[in-house]
Design goal:
single chain, 469 residues, alpha/beta, eight-stranded parallel sheet, four-stranded antiparallel sheet, 17 helices, 12 strands, 12% strand, globular
Length: 469
């Protein structure tokens, strides 16, 4: 039997685009026809990787996929109603016998996360979407009798919530199968932390560092950095690592296995938090008042690698990276990240400079947290611009194509370019500005943006950098 090819066995090119950013008539992109057209575009452009942001259900007020209602559930806002109708999946009562069997089998296989999520989502609707820590103590603490009593009249709604999750799963599986038929791998993102107001914390509070009223004792964040002088306060609860270790990291094993059901490749966001995480007192005004607290490191990563399988994980190793973090990543052979926008600070040892790139790594022009390359370039001083030009393959080539070409020619096995850079957008195309809460996660590509002309241009660049599809 031939050895199965792993994502990093050869040089590849990819594009970063979240589902919500796909063009289309609705309020946001979905898993319908435009998603399939984008797969076709990738294949025509010589790109064999589609990188996405987390597919988890978001809090409506902010829409961030990194602060979700569940670490396991799918975002049912991404369901294509047109495809739902075309495949006879509009209502559980109208399913064929085979569909009913598939729905039942899927629900049984996913019950460990599905049933707590369904309970949480139904109760949250009952409370007009108020966060669970504000519920009456019996429901807040998930007392079995109180929950059963509250949910007794909601049987139909619970079944619909299960059904919607199944429909999301069916539509995603179809899209992933189509991508595979075109030689395109799906590259997902796993946020290290989960939202306090989530099914995960409500259903398993013993796994988190909470007080007797189930409020966080410390919250997540990062110290002052490139993005924020006061650091960033993310407000996620921290894990009780001792409790998780005592259970063999079962919750994490299930979580990574769930992601591998969805994706060929998974990025562990904020990887450095596995070695040590920034703990901010819950009552602190800013993240400046935090401290580093050692995490589970190799014990957890061993469990994740064993559950995910070889060659399927990538470490987001940006920010304050210590030798201990590097050693942890290298011990388990996880590729790290290189971001060209971070490279040109005048430091010859900057690990993001092209000459410093490791072969087993992923290079980006920028990420979803960066400005677009054109927006970044337009704000640089002339001295930095000259430094950038000294590294370019063609110093006279205009931005953003000059940086795209530089990324594609990197030693890194995988080069990923945000779709906004391929479209030549300025900061009007920025997806997220860290440390801010308004105006993020809403960018969408215009209709017809990913056309044959663009595919041809990208294909020439990809072929010229020895990254065959």
């Amino acid at each position: 039997m031939a050895k199965r090819e792993l994502p990093f066995d050869r040089r590849r090119a990819g594009v970063l685009l979240h589902v919500t950013s796909l063009p289309g008539p609705g309020p946001a992109g979905d898993l319908g026809d435009e998603a399939y057209r984008f797969v076709d575009f990738l294949a025509d452009a010589g790109c064999s990787v589609w990188q996405l942001l987390p597919l988890a259900p978001t809090h409506p007020a902010e829409g961030s996929p990194y602060n979700a209602l569940s670490a396991m559930a799918g975002n049912t806002d991404l369901i294509s109603t047109e495809h739902q109708s075309a495949h006879g999946l509009e209502d559980p009562s109208g399913l064929t016998a085979q569909q009913r069997s598939d729905f039942s089998s899927w629900g049984a296989a996913q019950a460990d996360w599905l049933e707590p999520f369904v309970e949480y989502a139904a109760l949250r609707e009952l409370h007009d979407l108020a966060p669970w820590p504000s519920w009456a103590p019996g429901l807040r603490d998930r007392d079995a009798a109180s929950v059963a009593e509250a949910l007794a009249p909601l049987g139909d709604r619970k079944q619909m919530l299960r059904f919607e999750q199944w429909v999301f799963s069916v539509q995603w599986a179809r899209l992933r199968d189509y991508a595979a038929s075109k030689g395109v791998l799906m590259f997902g993102d796993l946020p290290i932390f989960v939202s306090l107001d989530s099914a995960d914390v409500w259903a398993s509070p013993e796994q988190f560092h909470l007080d007797e009223d189930r409020r966080p004792i410390t919250v997540s964040g990062c110290p002052p950095d490139y993005f924020s002088a006061d650091g960033q306060r993310w407000d996620n609860p921290h894990y009780d690592w001792d409790a998780m270790a005592a259970g063999g990291f079962g919750w994490w094993r299930r979580r990574i296995a769930r992601q591998r059901e969805l994706f060929d490749l998974v990025r562990i966001d904020h990887f450095r938090g596995l070695e040590a995480a920034w703990h901010v007192p819950a009552d602190a005004a800013t993240a400046r008042d935090g401290e580093w607290v050692t995490g589970p490191g190799a014990d957890l990563l061993s469990a994740l690698v064993a559950s995910a399988g070889p060659g399927s994980l990538v470490a987001e190793d940006l920010g304050v990276i210590t030798p201990e973090v590097d050693a942890l990543r290298l011990r388990f052979g996880l590729p790290g990240m290189k971001v060209l926008q971070f490279a040109f600070d005048g430091d010859d040892d900057n690990l993001h400079l092209p000459g410093q790139h490791e072969e087993q790594s992923v290079v980006y022009t920028g990420t979803h947290d960066n400005d677009t390359t054109l927006g970044w370039w337009q704000q640089l001083d002339e001295e930095t611009c000259e430094q950038v030009r000294s590294f370019l393959v063609d110093p006279d080539e205009p931005m953003p194509w000059a940086l795209i070409r530089l990324a594609l020619h990197s030693r890194a096995r995988l080069a990923v370019v945000p779709a906004q850079d391929l479209l030549g957008l300025g900061n009007e195309g920025r997806m997220n500005t860290p440390g801010t809460s308004a105006g993020n996660w809403s960018w969408r590509a215009p209709a017809g943006a990913f056309d044959d002309r663009l595919a041809g241009r990208v294909s020439e660049l990809v072929a010229g950098s020895n990254r065959p599809c």
